[in-house]
Write a structure and sequence with these properties.
The chain has about 375 residues and is an all-alpha fold. The protein is built from twelve helices and no strands. It is globular. It comes from Seriola lalandi dorsalis.
C-alpha cells in the first residue's frame, strides 16, 4: 500500500531519487485545507458508519448483498479511524514517533481498506448484474457460506499482502525530515513496489468488472423500459378519479432503476480519479522528466484525488440506505419512523416488512 507523510519528498516504492528539499510540499493546501477537510470527514464518518454498523449488526446475513455491505462498513470504520493520524501528520502537529506510526500502520490500514472496498464494489456489481438478469433466482445456505468464505479470503489475502509493509518499515529515521521510504529496508522497498503493482491489478480488474456489469444492467433496464412502453402504448387504462396524488408505477420504477447506479457513481467518484492521478505522479517521482512546479502540481493532484477516495467512507451509507431494504426497515424501526418514510427518495411506497424468507435476496431491491 502507498505510504504518505508530510515529509517533503516522495514515498512511492521504487523511488530511489530524492526530491529536491526546496520543492517543498508544506503549503496551505496540505497543512491547513486537507486537515480541516479530513477532520470534517472524521466527524461525519464516525456518525454515519457508527449508525450503519449498529444497524447491520441487527440484520442477519441472508443475502450476498448484505454480506458484501457488512464487509464494506467494517472497512469504512477502519478507514475513518485512520483520519486523525493523517490530520496530525499533514498539519505538522505530529511527533516523530507518531509520523513513524503513520508510515508503519495507519497509512497501510487506509490503503488496505480502500482496496477491500474496491474488491467488494466489484462483487456488488456482479451481484446487481445477476439480480437484474435473473431477478427470480434466489440463494441458499451453501451459497451464503461460500460468500462468507470469499469475504474472509479477501481480508486474509490483503492483510498478508500488506503485513510485510509494517514489518519491513523498521529503520531509524535519518533526520526529522524523513519520508516513509527512509524507514524501509531494502526488502521493504522491493515488497512495497510489488504491493503497488498488485493494487493496480485489483483496481483495473474491478474497474473492468464494474463497467461490464453496469453495461449489461443498462441494456437490460432499457429492454424492460421498452417493453413497458410498448405495453402502455397498446392500450389505455381507465382509472377512477382520485384526490390523492400518487406516483405512477413507471415513475417509481425509473426512480428504483436510477438508484441501482449509485454503486457505479460512488465507484467512479471515489476511486477512478485517484488511480488516474497516480500515473503522472508516479512518473514524476521515479523519473527526472518534470520540474519542481509540475512535481508539486502532481503531488497536490494526488492528494486531492486521495481525499475523494476518503469520501467513500461517507458515501457508502447512501448505498446502504437506497439499495438495502433491510437496512431501511431496521433503521426506521429503531428511529420509530413509519415504514413509508422517505419513499419519495427511494421510489418505493410503504415498505412494510413482509417477512421475506432468509434464503431469498429480498434485502437488495432493484
Amino acid at each position: 500500500m502507498l505510504m504518505e507523510t508530510n515529509a517533503p519528498s516522495s514515498q512511492f516504492p521504487g523511488n530511489h531519487s530524492h526530491t529536491n528539499i526546496t520543492c517543498s510540499r508544506d503549503n496551505i493546501l496540505k497543512t491547513v485545507v486537507f486537515p480541516v477537510l479530513y477532520s470534517v470527514l472524521l466527524l461525519v464518518g464516525l456518525l454515519l458508519n457508527g449508525v450503519a454498523m449498529w444497524v447491520f449488526f441487527r440484520i442477519p446475513s441472508r443475502s450476498h448483498f448484505i454480506i458484501y455491505l457488512k464487509n464494506i462498513v467494517v472497512a469504512d470504520v477502519i478507514m475513518t479511524f485512520s483520519f486523525p493520524f493523517k490530520v496530525l501528520s499533514d498539519s505538522n502537529m505530529a511527533s516523530i514517533g507518531l509520523r513513524i506510526f503513520v508510515c508503519r500502520v495507519s497509512s497501510v490500514l487506509f490503503y488496505l481498506t480502500m482496496y477491500i472496498s474496491i474488491l467488494f464494489f466489484g462483487l456488488i456489481s456482479i451481484d446487481r448484474c445477476r439480480k437484474t438478469l435473473k431477478p427470480f433466482k434466489g440463494t441458499n445456505a451453501s451459497r451464503l457460506t461460500r460468500r462468507k468464505l470469499l469475504s474472509g479470503a479477501i481480508w486474509t489475502f490483503l492483510l498478508v499482502l500488506c503485513l510485510p509493509n509494517v514489518i519491513l518499515t523498521s529503520k531509524t529515521p535519518p533526520s526529522k525530515h524523513f519520508k516513509c521510504s527512509d524507514l524501509k529496508t531494502k526488502a521493504g522497498l522491493l515488497w512495497h513496489e510489488v504491493v503497488n503493482h498488485v493494487c493496480q491489478v485489483i483496481f483495473w480488474g474491478n474497474l473492468v468488472t464494474v463497467v461490464v456489469c453496469y453495461t449489461l444492467i443498462t441494456k437490460e433496464l432499457y429492454k424492460s423500459y421498452s417493453r413497458t412502453k410498448s405495453h402502455s402504448a397498446g392500450g389505455t387504462i381507465c382509472q377512477a378519479p382520485s384526490r390523492k396524488t400518487t406516483r405512477s408505477p413507471q415513475q417509481a420504477k425509473r426512480k428504483i432503476n436510477a438508484n441501482v447506479f449509485l454503486v457505479l457513481a460512488v465507484f467512479f467518484v471515489c476511486f477512478v480519479p485517484f488511480h488516474f492521478a497516480r500515473v503522472p505522479y508516479t512518473i514524476s517521482q521515479t523519473r527526472k522528466v518534470f520540474d519542481c512546479k509540475l512535481k508539486l502540481f502532481f503531488f497536490q493532484l494526488k492528494e486531492s484525488t486521495l481525499f475523494l477516495s476518503s469520501l467513500n467512507s461517507v458515501l457508502d451509507p447512501l448505498i446502504y440506505f437506497f439499495l438495502c431494504k433491510s437496512f431501511r426497515t431496521t433503521l426506521f424501526k429503531t428511529l420509530q419512523l413509519p415504514p413509508g418514510t422517505c419513499s419519495w427518495l427511494t421510489g418505493r411506497g410503504s415498505e412494510v416488512d413482509t417477512g421475506d424468507t432468509p434464503l431469498r435476496d429480498s434485502s437488495a431491491s432493484i
